[in-house]
Amino acid sequence: MKLFLFSIAITSLLVSGCSNSLLFSPALNAPRTPLAKEQTQLFGGGTMLVETRRSNTTENALTRIGADGGVRYAFTNVVTGQVRGWFGDSQRWGLSFSAWVALSSPSASHKICIVPAFGTAMIENRIEGNGIGASALYMYTKHELVTPYLALTPMYGWNSNDFLNGTKYGYGASLTMGGTFNVTTWLSCNAEFNALTFYDRNSRSTEYVVSPSLMLQCTL
Asked: How far apart are CA 122 and CA 38, in angstroms?
């Protein structure tokens, strides 16, 4: 049976009120073939990670090349769990946790899912930012060469050290377009493009950024 996997745009807008900008990955990287019950998928590659506050970066940059990857496990033909991690440099990294819930029939060619997620942005071993997000993803699974997909993700994030203050937070949205190709029966390649906009309440600034990613996926 086919499970429509809905992926999450990695957590949220992890907005920092401290002197350092945090990093997050908006990538979804959907599989070529939806996972069936008890299947596992490992994935990893490169992503343009997004800076939460470019004014606090040395290069005044909105993105940084980083490593990104994780693991998915299908508990049922409806629910798949995912743990994901990303690394931008020796100090800044993050984790996200999500649950993919299928809304479409396993036999449908056109599939839709909603998945909630929670993420953290780290500096060394300290949690500096948290975020939540939920993506709505459409996937067409019957094409012979590629599985194309489109997703929209609203995001909200806050500074971990200033949660009760209510001024160091941000919100935004991401539009995702991607496709996954089979290399072998167990190996696939994913290419994806994300367009984001987000608002930082602390600095009262709005940013627009693009974040492509390229991944290999191994299904066990």
From this structure: 31
Distance separating alpha carbons of residues 52 and 10, to the nearest angstrom: 14
Bridge partners (DSSP) of residue 163 are none
Task: Say which residue the tokens 């929209």 belong to.
Answer: 152
pTM for the predicted model, two decimal places:
0.85
What gap in Å lies between CA 219 and CA 80, rounded to an integer?
A: 13
pLDDT in tens, 74-130: 999 889 999 999 999 889 999 999 998 888 877 788 989 888 899 999 999 999 999
Report the C-alpha gap between 135 and 99 in whole angstroms.
11
Q: Which domains does the chain have, with CATH numbers?
A: 23-219 (2.40.160)
Angle, vertex CA 4, rays to CA 185 and CA 9, nearest 5: 100
